[in-house]
Design a protein that fits this description.
This is ABC transporter related protein. By secondary structure, the protein is an alpha/beta fold. It has helices at residues 50-57, 97-101, 110-123, 139-151, 169-186, 197-203, 234-258; strands spanning 8-19, 22-34, 39-43, 65-70, 73-74, 82-85, 157-161, 189-193, 206-210, 217-222. Strands 6-7-8-3-9-10 form a six-stranded mixed sheet, sandwiched between helices. Strands 2-1-4-5 form a four-stranded antiparallel sheet, covered by helices on one side. A hairpin with a 2-residue loop joins strand 1 (8-19) and strand 2 (22-34).
């Protein structure tokens, strides 16, 4: 059955690690559907398996049970159709911004390659920094270069693993607007792991709240606030309180087990 590009379906996903000869469950019975062009955030306490989940979507981890389907087909290793941005920008320090962004365009050369690279430099607002090296960029600029590198092959899905976690608060707020602008311009599916509830509400169409390990989906919260979103609005704060309440419930559960 045909699936529109950018469709993700996860069914009955289970993941375990082996530590000191014992199996440690990390994810249990994950079921999730993501529509084309949707922005989804996955949040949860440290150790709940959210990064592992993203790595499975990227095929950076391959040992699991259940199904992960992209556009109706089971994933089979990393693909240019799924771009990945990490918390650490991972730009190669000896290459310029232009050359870092063009790393994935091995099959292109000449004018076509240069045109595509420049389009993505323009997209992320790094005009004038084409020949700069990563050491000459701020944290936010480095992440924008990393996003451009992930988008240069025109993926259907962009996976973001706490991409703003290392930035200061003011730069993060600026980058929220930039990511939203890029998402709208590219019209692709984005799935982001974050520990920042406000960030998730500002950017997402829906928020997936994960329980403590072994990670399960505790609740899926739709975000139906108009864009651009106002952090100071009553509706924004009300939704933030609702999401935070789920974390308190999870903490209470853990505490009750401890005693």
């Amino acid at each position: 059955m045909y699936q529109k590009p950018g469709t993700v379906k996860v069914a009955n996903l289970h993941k375990k690690f082996v530590a000191k000869g014992k199996e440690v469950p990390v994810l249990e019975d994950i079921n999730l559907s993501v529509s084309p062009g949707e922005f989804v955030s996955v949040i949860g306490q440290s150790g709940c398996g959210k990064t592992t989940f993203l790595r499975l979507l990227a095929s950076l981890e391959t040992d699991y049970s259940g199904e992960i389907l992209v556009d109706g087909k089971k994933i089979n290793g990393p693909s240019l159709n799924r771009g990945v941005v990490f918390q650490d920008h991972r730009l190669l320090p000896w290459l310029t911004v232009e050359k870092n962004i063009g790393l994935g365009l091995k099959k292109l050369n000449g004018k076509d390659k240069k045109k595509i690279i420049q389009e993505h430099i323009d997209l992320v607002g790094l005009n004038g920094f084409e020949n700069a090296h990563p050491s000459q960029l701020s944290g936010g600029m480095s992440q924008r270069a990393a996003i451009a590198r992930a988008l240069v092959n025109r993926p259907e899905i962009l996976l973001l693993d706490e991409p703003l976690g290392a930035l200061d608060a003011l730069t993060r707020m600026y980058m929220h607007k930039e990511i939203e602008r890029i998402w709208k311009a590219e019209a692709i599916t984005m799935i982001m792991v974050t520990h920042d509830v406000e960030e998730a509400i500002y950017l997402s169409d829906k928020i997936v709240i994960m329980s403590s390990r072994p990670g399960t989906i505790r609740k899926i919260v739709p975000v139906q606030l108009p864009r651009p979103r106002d952090r100071a609005s009553y509706d924004f704060q009300k939704l933030k309180d609702e999401v935070l309440a789920e974390f308190h419930l999870d903490a209470d559960k853990l505490f009750s087990y401890a005693i």
